[in-house]
């Protein structure tokens, strides 16, 4: 059994069949519960149609329902990302989750990657599709390697179809949608379209095994449209539950809900024991107060409202929701979306959750962590734990950080977490990681726990501006802007060809960092002193002012 799995198994798992305590609709231990939905107003009387004004052609019926013209373009509410990014992976990779294929590349094996390594199969100049390892939504039958010519030293023994990124099979659909986001739970995957529809495949699991994908389908093999979701703008996955945010700021939940991670009833008279598999709104949302961002931990849910305040729910045995209620109690849950009062003086901009801990950052760049402590999940030194903010065990060791606490000496604009490991990205694009590292999932080339946030470094990400990160149980992923070189004046084979606007030179890559800041370009650009670039592409010669479109270090070549 992998070490990371053992760590999760040794954690205090939710008790099967335990009944969640009901949160009161009044202030409880400093937390404000979300108000119950107001009764629906009576329908307004239908006004008497007025005669249509007579004009040329046939009069239009006043009570006719306007419809979209045949052939009219579909409604677009989400924009597909256009910035191509380099993808860096690290961690165990024993189940193909790193997407490095099944063979060595440049002498590097596709498993046990100690430091961030560029995924050569998903480099920025090659990326054309997105896929999510796990529930792959495509055929992955493999009976082992039958190629006698393969070098056994180069073969990692992985299923080549599971370990190599490939497009999901959408042949079962009449028309392939335009996808803008993907998300995956432990056993299911989902994809969001530009029109706000959600497609999914796989299954949800509960305490007793497979729960199902829908009330009528146990395992969904091929992608299918998820009923009940329209005009969705973002998806957030937990271990076995999903959150979706729609254009009006409402949050939908579905999946396994045994630890109150759906913030609603999981069994109903009409839907029976599988009612939780139908997406439904989990609270009351209005124009005055609605969700603008969502996130999920393993058994928790979060949303940031339009005022920058955090609402959370789900399993709370380690105060991983940000509430100190019943911290340390096995059956502790927050059953409905509840305002986190610890953040009342802050404008939170990002939040994420792991198995038993969570982290967030505010508009000032402060990084907050809270939850389980014994595996360095919160990234704090021992002197940060006090009687006021911490629950100690019988031996006097810190066990639960029950209040969100600032992590010193680090600024963050993006956070990511899973299981017992976390990553934060600074506004400058530097990545920091900490926590459980048995399978190198911190990217720090160590199997020991990383106590406090440490800069993620490797040859492949040197000088890169990181913009995104994600953490799995035994691996991690970061994404960064590729190094793109630009020139204002180019001379090819000694023949001058000046340009008044920057032109892209994609054949230049991995240039050393010389930190040269001379020049006078606008803030968007960082420029270099005039210098010669010789024989970088065949017989080409480059002269005069050169610049990189880059938000961090300036890259150049002597």
From TrEMBL:
Residue spans of biased composition, Acidic residues class: 142-157
Start and end residues of each RCC1-like domain: 87-475
Chain intervals with Pro residues compositional bias: 36-50
Key words of the record: Guanine-nucleotide releasing factor, Repeat
Molecular function in Gene Ontology: guanyl-nucleotide exchange factor activity
PROSITE patterns: RCC1_3 (PS50012)
Cellular component aspect of the GO annotation: cytoplasm
RCC repeat residues: 196-248, 249-307, 308-364, 365-428, 429-482
Stretches for region Disordered: 1-77, 129-168
Annotated protein name in UniProt: Putative rcc1 domain-containing protein
Source organism phylogeny: Eukaryota, Fungi, Dikarya, Ascomycota, Pezizomycotina
